[in-house]
Amino acid sequence: MSRMTQREDRPGPARWLVAGCAALAIGAALATVEPPAIAQAKEMKDVVIGLSMKTRAQRRWALDEAQMQAEANKLGVKLIFQWANDSPTDQTAQFENLLSQNVDAMIIVPVDAAAAAKLVDEAHQQHVPVISYDVDVPGAKLDFKVTRHNYRVGVVQAQAALKFAPKGNYALIKGDPANNVAHALSDAYDKELGGDKDIKIVYNQFTANWDPKAAQAAAENVLSANSDKVNAFVTSNDGMATGVAQAIEGRNLQGKVFISGLDAETPALRLIAEGVQTMTVWSDLASQDKAAVDVAVALALGKTPDLKTVTVNDGAGPYPAYQVAVTEINKSNLCEFVTKLAPKGWTSVKEVWPDNPNACK
Asked: Per the domain annotation, does 361 fall within a domain?
């Protein structure tokens, strides 16, 4: 039976939705319990998953690719990666090219999240299920989403800021306004900080493209406008945190001002080791990458992904999502993260402490 024939016999998106919402709650057992659909996939050497990826510019995406490929190799299925390099036009062409190759399911990290709804519709017209990875697709009824718990990231950042500076002036340097991750973090900031009478928000702006230089310029302006009396920069990711750190170091305020981040990238980890950045947030990419491939294979077979899910709605109706837990990384657990928790190849003691190779001994 050809893949195209199999696709015609599959249940449509409505059936996938019902199946996804009925997913069994096994939580962390994903790593050890093998769903029936996945076991079946090992016997189906013709299962092909298309991956329409946003960019390879950040180090993490190479790790995502490697870990997804490792899971695919384990299951005996084929992955086809296409990288859009932050171009919505390229992503559209690549997505349509993947569909033309008779893929059985699609995983997408959208460049333009809103514009990607049209791509989801195109896939559904060909009865191909679509899983979003890391980023929502507003206005689309996806078949599944695999992502970190982004709202929780914002909560962790805000609570760490309050622990560092229970009162004072706060600057909220948020991510790209076109990105749902930035908005999830912003919602958490509003909830955690908005009603605190001891906190004065002196800056509260999104930052196009999560630009570190723009974040640095904003931080410098905020410091000047407030005579350097800023107690916390709640900064949405590590890239922007490096920009804020430069502004802080330029005023000789390192260690005196809170700076948050997200992604546990090596430059941020080094800043934490140096006492400049206060904390960052890590999500378990290994579990996230494994789950994305497992879900895609299950949906390609018309099966129920065997994961603990929540129900989400991006404006076109409810569908299931798997949310990866997040962890605060700060100076107290930095060595544990670098030597034990971080995936192989993510970072190293030498990179984080270039002048102190025995830092974690």
From this structure: no
